[in-house]
Write a structure and sequence with these properties.
The protein is α+β, with helices and mostly antiparallel strands and about 300 residues long. The chain folds into two domains: about 5-115, Rossmann fold; about 155-295, Hnrnp arginine n-methyltransferase1, CATH 2.70.160. The chain contains seven helices and 17 strands. One of its GO terms (cellular component) is ribosome. InterPro entries: Arg_MeTrfase (IPR025799), Methyltransf_25 (IPR041698), SAM-dependent_MTases_sf (IPR029063).
Length: about 300
């Protein structure tokens, strides 16, 4: 029988199917970004912990330099998968795959780097923030400071109004959509610039709930019927070069319950609230947009004539 946490984990995505992890291996942007960031963050001889190891690939990246890697995975299917995959690769013996709950596990010794990729767009569904906050509290109680370096180091979240096409061969269906960040979608029209609504720095205490209210100046006439959520993961800050190694999640587009017709120059106010690790419908239910300024409704001001 599953306990309450395991039931919630299955629903929210902690038990991601094996084939989904295989798809992640084929995501070149994700793989290259994490490999580069781990190569930068892990020093020779370091001790590394990965929370939520999946296939073990990120732990394997760390094993190229690390003396020891602890790879924690809660899903027994993935534990078997990771052990099988690591056995096929050089340095795989430096990774210890541990069947344990990331909410409860602590390594037997202090570590230098913690890798955790339980990341969904807008930090929904998966437990990235809650897992890391729990880990920091328990780690400090056992080992004291300083905390390890976390990878990702930070997350930047933004939102953007869209006019989104919901016609599927004549079938109208306002559904949640996930889109590649580097692809062009003719049915997606950006109606204003994106606005950042939250920045998470994992080296600092992190909030578990987000509430935002902000305004957008509309850039073109049409109908705003969706909001795009953008999640940029700052995997590592390369201080020597003043740059970052980043990875963008797929864009997530949520339909608005009540579309808003707009003209260029109008001001749209958007609000929402949700909890980190919560469901997508919980964010959808709180998402609201309304006009607070109509440019076309303003009277024309006559300019004085010049002689």
């Amino acid at each position: 029988m599953l306990n309450e946490r395991e039931i919630e984990s299955c629903y929210l995505g902690q038990f991601i199917p094996v084939h989904y992890h295989h798809n992640m291996l084929m995501d070149q942007n994700r793989m290259h970004g994490f490999k580069s960031a781990i190569d930068y963050a892990v020093r020779p001889g370091a001790k590394v912990l990965e929370l939520g190891g999946g296939t073990g690939v990120l732990s394997w990246f760390a094993a190229a330099k690390a003396a020891k890697v602890y790879c924690v995975e809660f899903n027994p299917d993935m534990v078997r998968e990771a052990r099988k995959m690591l056995a096929l690769n050089p340095n795989g013996e430096k990774v210890e795959v541990i069947h344990a709950d990331a909410f409860e596990y602590l390594p037997p010794e202090p570590v230098d780097v913690v890798i955790c990729e339980m990341i969904h767009v807008a930090m929904l569904r998966e437990k990235q923030v809650e897992v890391i906050e729990s880990f920091k509290r328990r780690y400090l109680e056992r080992f004291g400071g300083p905390l390890p370096v976390f990878l990702p180091e930070a997350v930047i979240m933004a939102v953007q109004p869209l006019q989104q096409e919901y016609d599927f061969e004549g079938f109208y269906a306002p559904i949640v959509q996930f889109q590649e960040t580097q692809a062009v979608y003719p049915g997606t029209v950006e109606m204003a610039h994106p606005a950042v609504y939250n920045i998470i720095d994992f080296s600092q205490p992190c909030q578990l709930s987000y509430a935002w209210q902000g305004k957008f100046v509309v850039e073109r006439t049409g109908e705003i019927n969706a909001m795009r959520f953008v999640t940029k993961n700052v995997l590592a800050v390369v201080q020597e070069r003043g740059t970052t190694i980043d990875w963008l999640n797929h864009y997530m587009t949520l339909p608005l319950a009540v579309p808003v017709k707009v003209r260029e120059g109008d001001v749209l106010e958007v609000s929402f609230q949700y909890r980190a690790g919560g469901s997508i419908p919980s964010l959808e239910a709180s998402l609201k947009a309304e006009l607070v300024f109509e440019a076309a409704a303003q009277p024309l001001v006559k300019m004085p004539a010049f002689a």
